[in-house]
């Protein structure tokens, strides 16, 4: 195994009370496909390796076969920008609002506006008092100090991040609050008997997962579990905005239902789903589901076997707890994005590792919690945050240094055809990046994604 990957993998697994059998790991040490000096390929490879080893270990504990975990370093780096490869009938979808991006403020700093959801866009324009053009927004922001605008926007539930150097972020109280816990904050919740799952064809056969998440990190966690046999039910609602292209790319092998938790009948249907679930992925802001009585503590008190996996932008503690955020936004205040020395507009990383790594780590947390539950060690819950993943990327970079063979530009799509998979679907013929990790004897499996809300809110008969 690559020493850099091992130096990331070992402490990650130690934090999960686990020593994996790395003799079962086969890494293809190919070059990175992501531009720049950040060691994205090694960090991603370590994360996917940990997930694969956890799946292999759980399946073996359930009576499954010993098998190799196979990860391609190049493919793992590509998985940090998976949605970029989606094509529908040969065309790439458009999902970014033209106002999203960097703007200079009156104190000669930069802020990043994330306006891809219409209500965030409209709220930002109202706060600025300007027209819906980049020119008008640029002029309006010259009347603001960057940190003041970031704070005022957050108070209104909007998505704005001030660009900070890493040194500034490292002194920030939110960074300190996040680093009080490891990147995967796995906590024992209560004791419970083990041995509830029988052996199945895949590592997660018979496991039921409720996926209450949107956009990328949470949906990718659900997709990873579905790829290896779990029955994953995405729960959304008609009134909540989505990005169709991301819902498609993260929707492979999932069921999808619509429930409005403001309605008593839908809450009853949701309660029934939860009562039969093994895992719940909560990708909403901390406290959002608590309004309906579905906090992690309440859920686990009513459903003792349930494993709760929480994901958020900035975590559930610290002065920024509960702030909204997305990968492209969170890169700015955490020091991953940077302003070029020539004074040109800032640039983000050439991929979205906060979303994709956090999704992979959330799936890893779920599999490890299942293993602990199955061996009678109790029920565990986990908390993850995009900003904590950013901190982990920084410290991993400190430990292993720059990418040893950096490239100037992301690999072009036409050089990556061996990593793409085509699927017939209700949306048309899909071309997508395939998963970068597989198990030798129980490889990942995909079913075509379905339109949101296609299924009834009930678990299928085994």
Query: Would you state the CATH class?
Result: Alpha Beta
> CATH homologous superfamily - what is it?
Crotonobetainyl-coa:carnitine coa-transferase, domain 1
- Reported CATH architecture: 3-Layer(aba) Sandwich
Principal-axes geometry comes out as globular
Indicate the percent of residues in helices: 25-40%
CATH topology: Rossmann fold
Number of domains: 1
* Overall pLDDT metric: 94
Given as residue ranges, the uncertain stretches (5+ residues, pLDDT < 50) are none
Give the C-alpha Rg: 21 Å
Strand order of the largest sheet: 7-13-12-11-8-9-10
Q: Kindly name the structural category.
A: alpha/beta
What is the count of β-strands? 16
User: For the report, how would you describe the main beta sheet?
Assistant: 7 strands, mixed
Number of helices: 15
Task: Estimate what percentage of residues fall within beta strands.
Answer: 15-25%
**N- and C-termini, Cα separation:** 39 Å
Q: Could you explain how this protein is built, in words?
A:
- With 462 residues, the protein is an alpha/beta fold.
- It has a single domain, classed as Rossmann fold (3-Layer(aba) Sandwich).
- 34% of the residues lie in helices and 16% in strands.
- It is globular and about 65 Å long.
């Amino acid at each position: 195994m690559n020493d850099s990957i091992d130096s990331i993998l070992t402490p990650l697994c130690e934090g999960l009370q686990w020593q994996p059998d790395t003799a079962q790991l086969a890494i293809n040490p190919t070059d990175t496909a992501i531009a720049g000096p950040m060691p994205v390929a090694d960090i991603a490879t370590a994360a996917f390796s940990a997930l694969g080893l956890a799946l292999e270990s759980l399946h073996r504990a359930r009576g499954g076969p010993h098998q190799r975990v196979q990860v391609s370093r190049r493919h793992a780096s590509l998985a940090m920008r998976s949605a970029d490869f989606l094509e529908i009938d040969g065309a790439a979808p458009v999902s970014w609002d033209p106002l999203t991006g960097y703007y200079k403020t009156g104190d000669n700093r930069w802020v990043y506006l994330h306006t891809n959801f219409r209500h965030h866009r409209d709220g930002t324009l109202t706060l600025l008092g300007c027209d819906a053009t980049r020119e008008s927004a640029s002029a309006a922001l010259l009347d603001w100090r960057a940190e003041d605008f970031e704070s005022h926007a957050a108070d209104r539930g909007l998505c704005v991040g001030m660009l900070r150097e890493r040194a500034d972020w490292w002194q920030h109280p939110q960074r300190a609050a996040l680093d009080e816990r490891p990147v995967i904050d796995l906590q024992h919740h209560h004791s419970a008997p083990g041995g509830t799952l029988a052996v199945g064809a895949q590592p997660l056969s018979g496991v039921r997962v409720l996926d209450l998440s949107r956009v990328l990190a949470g949906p990718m966690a659900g997709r990873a579990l579905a790829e290896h046999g779990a029955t994953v039910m995405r729960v959304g609602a008609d009134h909540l905005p989505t990005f169709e292209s991301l819902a498609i790319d993260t929707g492979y092998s999932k069921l999808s239902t619509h429930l409005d938790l403001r309605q008593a009948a839908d809450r009853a249907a949701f309660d029934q789903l939860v009562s039969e679930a093994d895992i719940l992925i909560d990708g909403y802001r901390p406290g959002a589901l608590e309004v309906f009585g579905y906090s992690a503590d309440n859920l686990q008190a009513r459903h003792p076997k349930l494993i709760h996996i929480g994901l958020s932008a900035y975590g559930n503690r610290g002065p920024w707890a509960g702030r909204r955020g997305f990968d492209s936004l969170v890169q700015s205040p955490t020091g991953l994005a940077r302003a070029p020395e020539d004074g040109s507009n800032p640039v983000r990383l050439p991929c979205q590792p906060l979303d994709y790594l956090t999704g992979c780590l959330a799936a890893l947390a779920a599999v490890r919690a299942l293993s602990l539950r199955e061996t009678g060690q109790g029920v565990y819950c986990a908390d993850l945050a995009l900003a904590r993943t950013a901190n982990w990327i920084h410290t991993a970079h400190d430990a292993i240094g720059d990418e040893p063979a950096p490239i100037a530009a992301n690999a072009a799509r036409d050089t990556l055809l061996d990593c793409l998979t085509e699927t017939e679907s209700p949306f048309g013929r899909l071309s997508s990046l395939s998963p970068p990790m597989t198990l030798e004897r129980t490889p990942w499996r995909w079913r075509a994604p379905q339109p949101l809300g296609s299924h009834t809110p009930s678990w299928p008969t085994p």
